Amino acid sequence: MTQETWQKHSQRPLIVAAFVFLAAYSILVIAQPPEPSADALTFVIWLTWAAFGIDYIVKLMLAPRRRRWFLRHPMDLLIVVIPAARPLLLLRPLRLRKVMDRAPGTAIRARVMAYVVASAVLLLYTVALSVLSFERGAPGANITSMGDSLWWAVVTITTVGYGDLYPVTVPGRLAASALMIGGFVVLGMVTAVLSSWVIESVTAATSSRTKAPHDRPAHSLNETDNMHTPGKPRTDRR
Predict the structure, then answer these.
(1) What is the rounded distance in angstroms from the CA atom of residue 22 to the CA atom of residue 16?
(2) Are 153 and 127 in contact, with CB atoms under 8 Å apart?
């Protein structure tokens, strides 16, 4: 079996596992169910972790050059190590390279914008969940509800930074750092897409107004040549 064959057959099950993980993790963190239900949700989360771990090991073993594949695919390892990164696997069917293939300029911009927005929403929600799980119950914590955590995540990813809410634990601050970097990336990609659209629009408008003289119709050029200039004797062309 090749790595491509494995990825083709494992993509859908892993996407389902990512959905299951996000649902179980959301219920566990937000609802805080009692002990039997909490144990069941924790078991489901560990099962999804096992699925991601097995997928990573198989892809590494099937890689023609394992060291090179390991260095070029840090996101696969990140999904296994960091639970909050697992929902990003839901974006695998919308990978940026596939989004940009076989599309004209305007379609590329629209698809990239959709990809960026989806990535930002998933990143924001999963980091908000993680920060709430880290901060809840910590001494001096001010992020104690999902509403507070979502507000903090929105303020952070947009680089506004009011400072009214902030993580106090080390894992919470690490998650905040990842969200800050993600915010810069999102804003940078949005700015690049908008700049490309403005430049293309201005270029198209300018080129349409500055047509070369040879683009004019031939009959208009003949009429200009046959016009009589005042003060200049008119000559007949025979």
Answers:
(1) 10
(2) yes
